[in-house]
Fold this sequence. Notes:
Blueprint: E1 27-28, E2 31-32, H1 33-43, H2 72-80, E3 87-90, E4 96-100, E5 103-107, E6 114-118, H3 119-122, E7 132-136, H4 142-145, E8 147-152, E9 155-160, E10 163-164, E11 170-171, H5 172-175, E12 185-189, H6 191-194, E13 198-203, E14 206-211, E15 216-221, E16 230-234, E17 237-242, E18 245-249, E19 262-263, E20 295-298, E21 304-308, E22 311-314, E23 324-326, H7 327-330, E24 340-344, E25 347-352, E26 355-360, E27 366-367, E28 373-374, H8 375-379, E29 386-389, E30 395-400, E31 403-408, E32 420-421, E33 429-433, E34 436-441, E35 444-448, H9 451-456, E36 463-464, H10 465-470
Antiparallel strand pairs: 1-2, 3-4, 4-5, 5-6, 7-8, 8-9, 9-10, 9-11, 12-13, 13-14, 14-15, 16-17, 17-18, 18-19, 20-21, 21-22, 22-23, 24-25, 25-26, 26-27, 26-28, 29-30, 30-31, 31-32, 33-34, 34-35, 35-36
Amino acid sequence: MGQGRLCNSPSCPNIGPGVAEAPGTPYAMGVPTAVLCLAWALALACAHPLTQSKTEAAGGGHPHGAEPPSNDTDLAQLCADEGRFDATTLSENGTMLFFRGEEVWESSHGGFRLHARPLAASWPEVGGPIDAALRLYGWQHPQEHQSLYLFQGEQVWAYFGGQLQPGFPRRIGDEFPGVPGGLDAAVECHPEECGGKTILFFKGDTVYAFDLALRVTKPRSWPGLGPCDAALRWLERYYCLRGTHFQRFNPLTGEVPPSYPRDLRDYFIPCPGRGHWNASWGAAGDRCSEMPFQALLSDDTGRIYAFRGGLSFRLDSLRDGHHAWPLGQTWPGLEGEVDAAFAWDGRTYLIQGSQVSIFLSGQGYRRVLGYPRALQDELGVSSADAAFTCPHSANLYLITGDHIRLVNLTQTPRQAGEPVPLPHDHVDGAMCTNDGVFLFHGPSYHQYHSVAQLLGAKELPSQSIATHFFHCPQ
Length: 474
């Protein structure tokens, strides 16, 4: 793409001079040629849809009413003792459930509170402590894969929407052929991580891998992992809980990475003064606060992130809850604030001031050697307030102040086109999906169907980020 033209492809319509001639840009049928050319570039791109999730039920993960208040005394006791949990899993609404004895502890959607209730209050048919718990979830078969399974002795109970399903309880071996009773733990393994829809059942030192499609069970031995009191899949990672500690493990090999085990109370239980539940984050760590986000990102894998104050949130993970994490938790070695972000060709670009870091996207993120490097050398600009690409497109849109510029990412060296005015004085972050272009400013966002509408229209009405992206109460 040549400097000064927004469209230099043979596919572009012949609409006259580019944006380099602004002001006084010629009009075609009442629309600036710069607008038409940007729109044409976007029309050649595909985009991932913004993940759509059903509205949360009243009471979050609690199937029988409003969320009870947190009991600080009980939480303090939970944080002080060395007892183990019988089971743990995620609810249908993405809250964490910790089972111990006759009680179940449930996290709030922000993750900063736990409240306890009798197990019988939500699952009266079970009665007594359980051995293991499991959430099955999948878009194609919602009745089959939005179920919560509770295991006790030789039996299993299946619940959907808080209601016991017909034909349950059943023998575990009848529901999952080849799987024994008296389990220690269970966790669903997703196809992209296990090569097929699989459930991992734990009993002693043996792991039973149950193939949901073939309905066959294969025993495995993972001596490096050891027995698990409970197991959990969260944000595409797998955890084995034992006592007050946990280990992350590879669901195909059982391999445990360095630096484990770690203490549950520093990560999964919001114990005061401990771990990543850091009170000093304040509004930055509260998904429902109106503190502005500094950048947003939709990557090639469909993951959607929001950044502010050195933290990141997953927006596409309602089923796993919306939690804040320090940047280094997802992007190793990254610290500070992210000013703009975009993804292209299996890589994630995170812009911080005048520098950019590139991470390889995949099951995890790995920083490309030689980065960070100067943004001017990488993209031909010195800074950016916001950035976005549409998946499968090499067109990058950079926003600075009230102007937008186009960069062809396949070009070497890369150069930014001339700035085109926006109907906004300032933008904090931007993102493109199949639902259009989203511009974020303060606590609100504006949605445009296309770049053409963005550039050719007045500012559209704003909507609440907290309400529409984080499902917070209005």
